[in-house]
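Researcher: Let's try something more involved. This one mixes different molecule types, so please make sure each is placed in the same coordinate frame as the others.
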Amino acid sequence: MILTVTLNTALDITYKVDALTPHASHRVTDVAERPGGKGVNVARVLAALGHDTVVTGFAGGPTGGVLRDLLAPLPVRDALVPVAGTTRRTVAVVDASTGDTTQLNEPGPAVTADEWSAFLTGYDALVREADAVALCGSLPPGIHVGAYADLVRRARAASVPVVLDTSGEPLRRGIAARPDLVKPNADELARLTGAREPLRATRDARRRGAHAVVASLGPEGLLAVTPDGIWQAAPPSAVKGNPTGAGDSAVAGLLSGLVEGLPWPDRLARAVALSAATVLAPAAGEFDMTTYRELLSRSTVTEHATAA
Amino acid sequence: MILTVTLNTALDITYKVDALTPHASHRVTDVAERPGGKGVNVARVLAALGHDTVVTGFAGGPTGGVLRDLLAPLPVRDALVPVAGTTRRTVAVVDASTGDTTQLNEPGPAVTADEWSAFLTGYDALVREADAVALCGSLPPGIHVGAYADLVRRARAASVPVVLDTSGEPLRRGIAARPDLVKPNADELARLTGAREPLRATRDARRRGAHAVVASLGPEGLLAVTPDGIWQAAPPSAVKGNPTGAGDSAVAGLLSGLVEGLPWPDRLARAVALSAATVLAPAAGEFDMTTYRELLSRSTVTEHATAA
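Model: All components are placed in one shared frame. Result:
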């Protein structure tokens, strides 16, 4: 079983409007809702790949209720912990005239010390059943900035591989607790290390404590600095589309390859192909299995001459 | 008791953002929710004026549940009829840098024939207890365009005064059923009559069947064409602020004066003062009682020399 943790889950709402004009009134022509937050997205991709997947984190209030109702029909197990606060919404306003998206993200609910304790009890029990753990996304108010570091240590104490995908100070603290893998994007990497050059920044990130670092470099694919070597992985050609969820699909590919014991090049090929298939899919965060398989067969993974 | 009907209720959500930039991602710094839809707004003002007020219409799904929870502590009676569909949301995005608002309105839930029948049964019973009825706002999908005309006839059959505040074809059909009062704004009036000149358009609207027409002309106040005469009512000076809900406050003022048997000039003074107090209040659709009383004492109502 793979466990994904989303401390700041969200109900992702997509509004379609004819054309977004600031300070005007708009008729929303289409409303779509789906359960969101990075770990929930990762879980959905893992389930599509056939992995037994459990989702934990927090859910509360009417929005949390809708999120759980939408999770129920998916092939993932819901182990979300109830909170008194209300799960946040994100609203993506898609302008039908241009295809561009304007994003509005509510703040998450404040989580109390008792709710965090309840989560930790459940987390420790789930980790014991897990083949791998993914810790994903931002922290809601009330959760201490070292929370991911704590969760990394608990997974490592149970000898369960743990992947961390977050940003800012929670990433800085979490990486020092020695996760098996972190997957920053170029911006997160630069903020963490102060370095802009990808290879230098990725190596620097690894020296901060992660066993392996896979940096997602947008259209250029992935750069992996691991104990076994350095690789650059790329899709067969630059793909154009909606990048929402592409990073989460890459995490799912890496996790999937990890629990199957695949060598790094195969894990990376899976990650870039899933990521590119997600960019190509019309709906944000979705991917088409045939497109994924086709991209997987044509993705390239090149080993870097320099040692890690 | 005053009955307000809101067939297309809404959960009104207000998001504050630092500055709205199309195609960018925004952190929402503040989220506020309140029960909405024009008849709900009218009821809130009536209750603040001390009137016994009942709200009916439809509510359904998780959003409808939140709307009813938010109505519960207000001094209005909730007689909303449950529907299988989900009550719509409206999202007002307030740009803190300019104070401007960008509005996103979801479509309403489809109402079935059985749900409409259940509503009519409840409506007929409530109308028998009512001193006046207000029919407010748009029609949700599934409700026939002549619905307001039907509701006007039922109120008139029970000899209960009925006010209609809607637009487009529902207004055109509704006015032909001879409501006691309609309150179009300048745009609605022009669409209904084809005339742009306010007095001409208001008289034309009255000839279509309404016993009285009070046109809201924005900062210029109200123009009333009634069986007793023609009046122009204006606040003491042009007010600057958020016009959201100002029209609903005017309807509440007119209804309030109607059930108290006030002469037209007093009803109109109440309506312009409430409307201006609503524009001046910092929160959309709210008003301050002291500001209202002060504006009421200084509003002007001028009789027009020409006969109706």
